[in-house]
Amino acid sequence: MTAGTLTLLSEQSGGDRIGLAASGSWTAEYAQALEPLIDAVTRPMGPVRSVAVDMARIERLDSFGAWLLERALRTWTSQGCEARLVGLSEHYRGLFDKVHAGTQKLTPEPRRPNSIIATLESVGRTMAAVGDDLLLMAQMAGSLVVALKRVLLRPLSFRLTSMVNHLERVGWRAVPIILLITVLIGAILAQQGIFHFRKFGADIYVVDMVGVLVLRELGVLIVCIMVAGRSGSSYTAELGAMKMREEIDALRTMGFDPIEVLILPRIVALVIAVPILTFLGSMAALYGGGFVSWLYGGIAPEVFLSRLREAISMETFEVGIIKAPFMALVIGIVACVEGLQVEGSAESLGEKTTNSVVKSIFLVIVLDGIFAMFFASIGM
Amino acid sequence: MAKDPADAVLRVRDVIVDLKEQRILNGITLDLYRGEILGFVGPSGAGKSVLTRTIIGLLPKQAGRIEVLGVDLDEADEDQRRAVERRWGILFQQGALFSSLTAGQNIEFPMLEYLDVSDRLATEMAITKLEMVGLKPEVYRKYPSELSGGMIKRVALARALALDPEILFLDEPTSGLDPISAHEFDELILTLQQTSSMAVFMVTHDLDSLYTICDRIAVLGDGKITAAGTMDTMLASEIPWLKAYFHGARARTDRQAVAKH
Question: Looking at residue A8, what is its pLDDT?
Fold first, then answer.
């Protein structure tokens, strides 16, 4: 098999007429070599009025070859030449006609707007989306209150089994990983504290630092970030998959309220689980801190405990634990709102799951800041 | 049609495939000849898709030989394999378009990977292919998520045809299409096959496709080819499943419809 060629038949050319002969394989394989040949013969050639291409000696033709030929014919025609094909075998006629019928009318790419305007537009759209999100969350909170009221009036209609099932998944099964992470955080805090406080001979104050930080802020924050990543994402993915498979529509048409059946048990489970996890996590972090203080800082456990008793009060613990159910509520609402916004495709499911985690972690930290101001102003 | 064994573009010999310790295909022998459309039918779960996936190398086989365009893919080295893969086109059931690329980029993808063509030629060829499968050039810039099911199948067919393959594998090409689109799709495959004289291996459940475009039909049952031949052979067959399939209520109305044409 030889590559396609296109040679000038000099004996036929003369005056305003040109004859060309094609031979070889005009196929995809040789398209790269054929294209320059086509470009060369379609350059404006002065006073040429008619071109004839002899296709009789072609070995093979596929759609690439047919299109390159068609491209040449179109160029000649647009230059005002009369272009003809000679000797194309019947075998390839159908293919050539199919390519010939193409219009190639591709609308030009839409002009890209000015980059400054595009940036401003995307900022504007993002702000509008933030507003929409807040509205959706408020709507979800409202629906939850309504569903809760209905359930309180008819306590038997509460989906207890579902709630217990979710409580096991987001609470009980999260205990090992939460304990592991908070022990490490407590240990790292204590190690860093001892390392720096030692320069001032203030080693013992590491107990104050670990105790206050863990109980007021870090315990609940770490637990909430873990829960958002672990349980919030799974809520979004579950609800999103149900939305994709029209399960939620099916529930609705059977006369059930999806908020009451699906979302309320999930959020109640989260609101119960997060304070428990926060308590366990805080204890584990204190344990980790005490352990490192003993091994690394030489602070004996009895000394650590008595110092801790002086450093913290019931109030310190309360500040941390009061925040937990509110943060759980935020995580649950964000996860469910995002889950219900999933559309038909798997990409949308992935995108909403990511959004759910990012938004709930962000909101948990914002909420923590608001609580900090609140507690400061009431003197806790 | 005369069947010269030397003219087979696909030769499957005694292929055995086990999945999860269960024998799915038990000695399949099959030929596909240049320029024919072979319809491949069988009950759901008989292993039609498994055979297709085995032939195109997505599933391992326990025994047997598969020769594509004269090359045994088990013995072929990397270059030979790639050369064969360049010469076949595959239309997956759901289209399998790359969702991050536009329709045009999907079609250009094999061209730019396998052939060293200029961007201009690749674009023109992509539009040509789109028009060949009956779509408007403006589809070029659309993403798969913006296309309807029928359009996705057409773009996927255009991608399968991107390199002018010699064998085209179709996995249930008309499933999920409304009857009119399915009929148009059949016609399209037939015209494209006639203009390029490629061989088509088509797994299908669509009796319409079998009647209107298939030259030969092979039937898979219990892991073996239970029957093979033209439509007339199938209609005359005494195998229970075939009788039910070709003489059932749906088949009768179909045949009447075909007869009226």
Answer: 55
| B35-63: pLDDT as tens digits | 888 888 888 777 888 888 888 888 888 88
Choose from B113, B125, B128 for mutation: most chain A CBs within 10 A.
B128
8 A C-beta contact, residue A180 and residue A282: no
What is the C-alpha to C-alpha distance for residues B146 and A17, in angstroms, rounded to an integer?
49
The verdict on residue A320 lying in a domain is yes
Contacts of B217 (CB under 8 A, 6+ apart): B38, B39, B40, B41, B210, B227, B228, B229, B230, B231, B233, B234
B131 touches A: beta carbon within 8 Å: yes
DSSP string, B16-81: EEEETTEEEEEEEEEEEETT-EEEEE--TTSSHHHHHHHHTTSS--SEEEEEETTEETTT--HHHH
Query: CA-CA-CA-CA torsion for A368, A374, A375, A376, nearest 10 degrees?
Result: 110
* Residue in this structure with the two tokens 């459309």, named with its chain if needed: B37
Question: pLDDT grade, residue A112 (50/70/90)?
Answer: confident
Could you tell me if A251 and A283 lie in one domain? Answer: yes
Q: What own/partner pairs with CB < 8 Å and gap ≥ 24 does B228-234 have?
A: B228/B30
Intervals of chain B under pLDDT 70? 1-6, 249-261
In sequence order, which ranges of chain B are alpha helices (DSSP H)? 48-55, 78-86, 103-114, 119-132, 149-160, 179-196, 207-213, 231-236, 240-247, 249-260
Cβ <8 Å between B164 and A68:
no
Q: Would A77 be classed as within a structural domain?
A: yes
Q: Does B194 touch chain A (CB under 8 A)?
A: yes
- Let me know whether B76 and B130 are in one domain: no
Question: CA nearest A61 in B: which residue?
Answer: B196
Query: Of B117, B131, B137, which has the smallest distance from its Cβ to A31's Cβ?
Result: B117
| Structural domain boundaries, residue B55 | 9-87+172-233
Question: What CATH number does the domain containing B216 carry?
Answer: 3.40.50.300
CA-wise closest residue to A50 among A67, A68, A73, A71: A73
CB–CB of A55/A88 below 8 Å? Answer: yes
C-beta separation of A114 from A82 below 8 A:
no
Write out residues 89-128 of A within 8 Å (CB-CB) of B: 91, 94-95, 98-99, 101-107, 109
Q: Give the count of domains, chain A.
A: 2
**Alpha helices by DSSP H, chain A:** 31-41, 63-78, 90-100, 115-153, 160-170, 175-197, 206-212, 219-227, 233-244, 247-253, 258, 264-295, 301-311, 314-340, 346-377
> What is the residue range of A162's domain?
122-377
- B163 has a chain A CB within 8 A of its CB: yes
pTM of the model: 0.75
Contact (CB<8Å) B125/A98: no
Per the structure, how many domains does chain B have?
2
d(CA B141, CA A109) in angstroms, rounded, equals: 8
**Is B49 contained in some domain?**
yes
Distance from C-alpha of A224 to C-alpha of A47, rounded to nearest angstrom: 81
Whether residue A193 is found in the same domain as residue A335: yes
* One domain, residues A230 and A307: yes
- Asked if B121 reaches chain A (Cβ–Cβ under 8 Å), the answer is yes
For the record, the structure tokens of A307 come out as: 């110092």
